[in-house]
Amino acid sequence: MNLINPEHIKKRQTIGIISPSAGLAPLFPHRIDNGKAMLEKMGFNVKFSSHALEQAGYVSALPEERAADINQMFADDNIKAIICSIGGNHSNQVLKYLDFEMIAKNPKIFLGYSDITVLHLAFAKKSRLRTFYGPCLMSEFGEFSEMLTYTREHFEKATSKTDPIGIINPSFEWTEEFLDWFAKKDLTRPRRLQKNKGYEWWKQGKTKGELWGGTIPSLNHLAGTEYWIDLKDKILFLDLPEGDNPASPLPLSSLDSYLSDMDNLGVFSSIKGLIIGRPYFYKPKDVETLKKYIEYYTRGCSYPILYNANIGHASPIITIPMGIMSSLNSEKNEFSILESGVS
Question: What is the CATH number of the domain that holds 130?
């Protein structure tokens, strides 16, 4: 797809904060405060949208109100980038209220992950805008005592620099530890990091293509809709999120069902590369089951499959410009992003 690259973000510019899905901001104001302080420490100004800090049940506001926030942030010339406060499961509700034509005329960095997958694909399909799969305000920028260095460096490389992003090395350490936000245990100490084993190649090979993907339940929300991206000859990345609570894994039975949906769509037989982000709270035996699922759904395919990338709900994470030309090479143990996503 011929996507529009937004302009790179510079210090002293203003970043807008929206909550297009879950209404968690008023429940955890300390995460909002930490995230805002981190962005200010990095040299940016911060502005919250009208409904970013609200809650209406499990979402932040009515679909029309959340969409209005998005439209207003894109229309505001003083806002140079937009970051989502957090994900959720209801970004799909706002799609029919978005002004995609106006958004296309006002390209700017749009950042988030998890359920924000829905908006990434919709902006690409309807506005031809390249957006960024990466950290959210509360979960990553709001980390105590500050944002993890790996996450910050990859955010800055993807959004502030116009050079090709280049080789994506795995982080030296990682964590999935959850310190209860309600009890503010996340303010008592940094999360414990453990050594990262690095990349695993579940299938050898090399390939090059546009990089698309996201959190698998949210990807599947768009199957069969006008917002779906044709994944033929693309490299697909999959993010495996949490389960029913922040400290539980996505059930393997649910994952198998989601993978079946993608198989029925012909995804696995049409892509030319696959990246699996580090699963959240999966034990070694769960990873073995995941590998068997992937082997089953990609049987007969010859493209490379990379596992344990810094993508998704375990930390730290990279920032991915959607639809960017990328490459996989198992012989060199390399995952590379070959272009810049900003102008």
Answer: 3.40.50.10740
**Whether residue 144 sits in one domain with residue 189:** no
DSSP 125: H
Q: For 263-285, how does the pLDDT look when each residue is reduced to its tens digit (9 = 90+)?
A: 999 999 999 999 999 999 999 99
Entry pTM: 0.97
63 vs 275: CA distance, rounded Å? 32
pLDDT above 70 covers what percent of the chain? 100
Contact 129, 150 (CB under 8 A): no
Q: Is residue 9 part of a domain?
A: no
DSSP per residue, 297-340:
HTTT--S-EEEEES-SSSBS---EETTEEEEEETTTTEEEE-S-
Q: How far apart are CA 23 and CA 57, in angstroms?
A: 7
Statement: residue 27 has pLDDT above 90? yes
Cα–Cα–Cα angle for 257, 246, 95, nearest 5°?
Answer: 60
